[in-house]
Write a structure and sequence with these properties.
Shape: globular
Largest sheet: 7 strands, mixed
Strand content: 5-15%
Number of helices: 10
Number of strands: 9
Radius of gyration: 21 Å
Structural class: alpha/beta
Amino acid sequence: MKRLLVFLTLAAFAVAPRAAAQGAQPVSACGAPLPHAPVLVGMTDTAAYFPKLKGLRVAVLANHTAVARFCEPAQGKYAAEAERLPGVSAGEAAALPDRAGSRPARLPGASADGTIHLVDLLHGRGFNVTGIFSPEHGFRGTADAGEHVGNSVDGRTGIPIRSLYDGNTKRPSDEAMQSFDVLVVDMQDVGLRFYTYYITMLRMMDACAEFGRTVVVLDRPNPNGHLIDGPVLDMKYKSGVGALPIPVLHGLTMGEIARMAVGEGWSRKCRLDVVCCRNYTHATPYRLPVAPSPNLPTQRAVYLYPSLCLFEGTVVSLGRGTDKPFEIYGHPDMKGYGFSFTPRPT
């Protein structure tokens, strides 16, 4: 209990250093949001990170979740703000939707609804992207849990993809680390100690500290960010599914984990910049626009995952191989419930 209370104190300070002084509810480290304004992920704040990348060799640690909509139909009192998203040129602004949302909304490389991937955005803007590092589930997010993923090439841009989940790689080779000057991190986490994306980020932060590389984290909301619960990890059990002395539900975003890891000495001290979400607090409900991994396809699964995943060390099925992973559980010996399912290889 004492360790949990210590963590709660540290987490509250890392997330909201001004909350106590101002008598306000905890907010993100970037300050209070505009009321009722849409949440904007760090990737959309191009004015905050494009200048940091100019003239440098850029590597990206990302997966399929590193997407954002830059050209949403303008609505209500925030219409003007939506039409002036940083990084949109005057020519592109002309293609943004008008107040009725009737004109096409698309940036170069974006899909029909204005959604664009970070790699396509950087590549399309002429940044020198020398490599992509991919976490568990691969760059496109299609590999199963724990499945080893090999190196490849991004079909759209021709940029090499270096897997950090091939069964061997703890960190990239010296050659790979020397191929870039700044690492941009953008992955959607779900706020769980045993979810591996933050562990991959920490390993890359350690490598960047060793090689003198800068790390820029483009932050995203934590869909379980309103919860801090569960036991703090005993570090003698540190592993690839638990790397920090934090609770199961830690309440932090990826950017906050990065800052806290450096501040607490849990990772090596690298040059770190975090581009915060805008209009977000830990009390802000946030529905994930993209499934973060194959077996968390729904918001319900994301909410149930912290509890049901604990059964993975047993013979109980958690619905993998069905259309409701982490929303159901069962075993052939569990009878009399009036419900059954049959997992099949997917």
